[in-house]
């Protein structure tokens, strides 16, 4: 079985992204390219990374009116990514139109509550429930909109899966030591997230900023 780990290559440097991906390729199941990479390298950069022959997760977290999101996804169709992201808080119509615009083989998943946010952060933007309740609410909305799954932290994935048995669950905010670091607040170990029902594990800095990314990826793989 291929690895559930998608390595997040958050860099503007195409050569560096290629070098890290090449180093870790035997211990990961796919590559995640996000806003930082895409704004610097565009579609040509994604095509270049696709030459490594690993599935591409294009994480642009689109969040706009339905027409704009659908047109942006149409523009990405030639890249045929394995997975793309939109924000669930864009609403049901936006999610429906996003799914309709995507290639049939592309999983469209909705970000629920970013793993960098905690209850206090939610309050500060006017959301009075906790992260757990908000993830459940948005998981239900994403399912009703016909999406493939959601992005949530390892803390909520078991509850989301209980409501959406065949959903696809993307879990970032993973730290091998299990402790919140840098900007991530809702964190978990990769092993615990998998046990809780994650379909794939998104891991960036614990691999990419290690002295030896290949050894770090191998060490994480050994825990799974
Ligand atoms: O959609 C995502 O992948 C995502 C959602 C989320 O709630 N939190 C989150 O960290 N991510 C992404 O997951 C990756 C986490 O990176 P590290 O914190 O370096 O492991 C980054 O590329 C984030 O953009």
TrEMBL record:
Q: Which GO terms describe its cellular component?
A: cytosol
Q: Per its record, what are the GO molecular function terms?
A: orotidine-5'-phosphate decarboxylase activity
Give an example GO biological process. 'de novo' UMP biosynthetic process
Say yes or no: keyword Ribonucleoprotein present: no
Which UniProt key words apply to this protein? Decarboxylase, Lyase, Pyrimidine biosynthesis
Give a yes or no for keyword Lyase in this entry: yes
Q: Which domain of life is it from?
A: Bacteria
Look up the record and name the pathway of this protein.
Answer: Pyrimidine metabolism; UMP biosynthesis via de novo pathway; UMP from orotate: step 2/2
- Which residues are noted in the entry as substrate-binding? 10, 32, 115, 175, 184, 204-205
The active site lies at 59, 61, 64
What SMART domains would the database entry show?
Answer: OMPdecase (SM00934)
Q: Which PANTHER family match?
A: OROTIDINE 5'-PHOSPHATE DECARBOXYLASE
NCBIfam families for this protein = PRK00230.1, pyrF
Instruction: Give a short account of what the protein does.
Output: Catalyzes the decarboxylation of orotidine 5'-monophosphate (OMP) to uridine 5'-monophosphate (UMP).
Family, according to the entry, reads as follows: Belongs to the OMP decarboxylase family.
- The protein depicted here goes by the name Orotidine 5'-phosphate decarboxylase
Q: Which organism is it from?
A: Tardibacter chloracetimidivorans
């Amino acid at each position: 079985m291929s690895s559930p780990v998608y390595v997040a290559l958050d860099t503007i440097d195409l050569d560096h992204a290629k070098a890290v991906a090449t180093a870790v390729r035997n211990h990961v199941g796919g590559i995640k390219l996000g806003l930082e990479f895409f704004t610097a390298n565009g579609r040509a950069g994604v095509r270049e990374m696709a030459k490594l022959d690993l599935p591409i997760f294009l994480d642009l977290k689109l969040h706009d009116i339905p027409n704009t999101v659908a047109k942006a996804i149409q523009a990405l169709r030639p890249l045929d990514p394995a997975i793309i992201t939109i924000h669930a808080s864009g609403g049901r119509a936006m999610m429906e139109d996003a799914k309709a615009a995507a290639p049939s083989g592309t999983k469209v998943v909705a970000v629920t509550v970013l793993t960098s946010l905690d209850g206090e952060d939610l309050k500060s933007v006017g959301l009075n429930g906790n992260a757990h309740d908000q993830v459940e609410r948005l998981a239900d909305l994403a399912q009703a909109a016909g999406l493939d799954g959601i992005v949530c932290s390892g803390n909520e994935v078991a509850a989301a899966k209980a409501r959406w048995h065949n959903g696809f669950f993307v879990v970032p905010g993973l730290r091998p030591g299990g402790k919140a670091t840098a900007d991530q607040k809702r964190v978990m170990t990769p092993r615990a997230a998998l046990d809780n029902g994650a379909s794939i594990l998104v891991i960036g800095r614990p691999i990419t900023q290690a002295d030896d990314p290949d050894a770090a990826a191998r060490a994480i793989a050994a825990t799974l």
